[in-house]
């Protein structure tokens, strides 16, 4: 394995004589909250940073100059070696249920929020220890950083709410996991980093004032003008719709702990995540999920379980009378099923070319999924090929029913092509991109995969659309630690 090295002239260390050209208008609204919400923490500089990539499109969206971000100051900032004026770096406090067990004290153990830009959080991940690091080193390995970059940007291109990738750098340092791995820092942009676990943090401490301040803050950022109850209902709706989208694309999050469940409804914390190749509703990818708690088909149930934990945390805000608060929470949580079912059926119907699937169409969808599960059909390719009126062998009887239903849909073919991707970041492709970067210092495979997944609904080179051969299949992915 070659030693990660700095590119010439890009040590990432600024001399104080140089004039600063990179200016960023940070808002820092989170840093204005009470001190017990976070720990002020600076990134720990790294030895020899090198830029992997800046996301020019996202930079522009944020009102930042991509060219400036690609220069020496941008590199130094993304590495945690230099803080632009106005940044107030901090690690956020939160709790979380991890695999069903409550940890009252988690918090950003390896992430540091630089501030908000254009209303969105800009956070370094892998930028060194914080007061919440416990026994961790605060660092990230290159492989998981590349996976998060690829998969989060692919999700965005697929139209799924998600945190985004602004930049990635290598550090020139090793991180110790089972083996020594090259280190990297990932810069993440999120609508916010408020999680179910953030609410649990204050509730677990009986800190009602903190809960009040947090909820007001969350409402201001995500649901301006909403009441506490309306805010909660909004979170339920967003999560229900999000998980419906995941299921419609074959996406498995992998670690749906309450600290990885965002109030904004964005997909967050890409660890052992994966897209299904062969359809299998009980598929589990996370090496640490021995019980299958976060299996593909479990995701709606778990999202609702997480929302129940949010409801518990927010109970005192729903009503001063506990009984009334509980009754309300149960009713509001009950709304999850209907929203999910609507969103799921709508999305699955569109995948079959149906503009507005009704409950009568549910059997058509379910029967296709059952056939796919029985035969191990490739999820993405099977749906995509419907656009060419092609079905796998053995699906003919189902196809007859589908063709009849389709007669009422003149635009079925275009709809199928617009809703069923040709290209997803399949595991074997992501692994190949990681192996090339980690073992050969070759980032061209990563770049090519990013380019292909940025246009998921276009026809693409077979290398990006063909399911893996049995020997290429990647059945497990590992936590981003
Ligand atoms: P995750 O599994 O990435 O959602 O992380 C769960 C918790 O462990 C969070 O509080 C993280 O900040 C923390 N954590 C994960 N990896 C590390 C690390 N290498 N160093 C310190 N804290 C970590
Ligand atoms: Mg997490």
The gross shape turns out to be globular
Order of helices and strands: EEHHHEEEEEEHEEHHHEEHHHHHHHHH
Content-based structural category: alpha+beta
Give unreliable regions as ranges.
1-11
DSSP strand count: 12
Number of helices: 16
Counting structural domains, the number is 2
Query: How confident is the prediction overall: mean pLDDT?
Result: 94
**Which molecules are bound besides the chains?**
adenosine monophosphate, magnesium ion
Distance between the termini: 20 Å
Radius of gyration: 23 Å
Q: Can you give a write-up of this model?
A:
The chain has 481 residues and is of the alpha+beta class. It has two domains: 158 residues, no CATH class; 227 residues. 42% of the residues lie in helices and 12% in strands. A hairpin with a 2-residue loop joins strand 4 and strand 5. The two termini are 20 Å apart. Bound molecules: adenosine monophosphate and magnesium ion.
Show the helix and strand layout.
Elements: E1 38-40, E2 50-54, H1 56-61, H2 66-70, H3 72-79, E3 90-92, E4 96-98, E5 101-103, E6 111-117, E7 120-125, E8 140-141, H4 142-157, E9 164-176, E10 180-190, H5 196-204, H6 208-222, H7 228-249, E11 251-252, E12 274-275, H8 299-318, H9 322-351, H10 362-375, H11 379-386, H12 396-406, H13 412-419, H14 427-440, H15 444-453, H16 462-465
Antiparallel strand pairs: 1-3, 2-9, 4-5, 6-7, 7-10, 8-10, 9-10, 11-12
Helix pairs in contact: 4-14, 4-15, 5-6, 5-8, 7-8, 7-9, 8-9, 14-15
The chain binds adenosine monophosphate (AMP) and magnesium ion (MG).
Magnesium ion is lined by residues 259-260, 269.
């Amino acid at each position: 394995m070659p030693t990660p090295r700095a590119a010439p002239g890009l040590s990432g260390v600024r001399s104080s004589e140089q004039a600063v050209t990179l200016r960023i208008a940070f808002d820092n609204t989170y840093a204005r909250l009470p001190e017990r919400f976070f720990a002020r923490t600076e990134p720990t500089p790294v030895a020899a940073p090198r830029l992997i990539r800046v996301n020019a499109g996202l930079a522009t969206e944020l009102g930042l100059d991509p060219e400036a971000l690609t220069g020496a100051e941008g590199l130094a900032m993304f590495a945690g070696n230099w803080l632009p004026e106005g940044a107030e770096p901090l690690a956020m406090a939160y709790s979380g249920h991890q695999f069903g067990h409550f940890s009252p004290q988690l918090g950003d153990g390896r992430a540091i929020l630089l501030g908000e830009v254009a209303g969105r959080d800009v956070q370094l991940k892998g930028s060194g220890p914080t007061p919440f690091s416990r026994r961790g080193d605060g660092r990230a390995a290159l492989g998981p950083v590349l996976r998060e970059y690829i998969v989060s940007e692919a999700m965005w291109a697929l139209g799924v709410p998600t945190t985004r990738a602004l930049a990635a750098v290598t550090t020139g340092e090793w991180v110790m996991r089972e083996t020594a791995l090259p280190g990297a820092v990932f810069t993440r942009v999120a609508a916010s980093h408020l999680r179910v676990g953030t609410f649990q943090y204050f509730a677990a401490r009986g800190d009602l004032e903190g809960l009040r301040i947090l909820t007001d803050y969350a409402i201001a950022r995500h649901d301006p003008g909403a009441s506490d109850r309306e805010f909660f209902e909004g979170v339920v709706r967003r999560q229900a719709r999000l998980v419906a989208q995941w299921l419609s694309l074959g996406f498995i999050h992998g670690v749906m702990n309450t600290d990885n469940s965002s109030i904004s409804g964005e997909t967050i914390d890409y660890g052992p995540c994966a897209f299904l190749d062969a359809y299998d509703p009980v598929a589990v990818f996370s090496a640490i999920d021995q019980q299958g708690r976060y299996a593909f088909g479990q995701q709606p149930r778990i999202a609702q379980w997480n929302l129940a934990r949010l409801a518990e945390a927010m109970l005192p805000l729903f009503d001063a009378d506990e009984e009334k608060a509980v009754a309300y929470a149960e009713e509001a949580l009950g709304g999850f099923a209907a929203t999910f079912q609507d969103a799921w059926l709508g999305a699955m119907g569109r995948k079959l070319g149906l503009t507005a699937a009704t409950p009568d169409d549910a059997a058509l969808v379910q029967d296709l999924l059952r056939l796919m599960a029985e035969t191990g059909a490739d999820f993405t390719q099977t749906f995509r090929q419907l656009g060419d009126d092609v079905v796998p062998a053995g699906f003919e009887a189902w196809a007859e029913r589908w063709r009849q239903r389709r007669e009422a849909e003149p635009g079925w073919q275009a709809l199928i092509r617009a809703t069923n991707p040709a290209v997803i970041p399949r595991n074997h492709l992501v692994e190949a991109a990681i192996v090339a970067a980690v073992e050969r210092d070759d980032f061209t495979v990563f770049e090519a995969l990013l380019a292909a997944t940025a246009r998921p609904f276009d026809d693409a080179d077979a290398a990006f659309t063909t399911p893996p051969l049995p020997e290429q299949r990647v059945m497990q992915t590992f936590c981003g630690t």
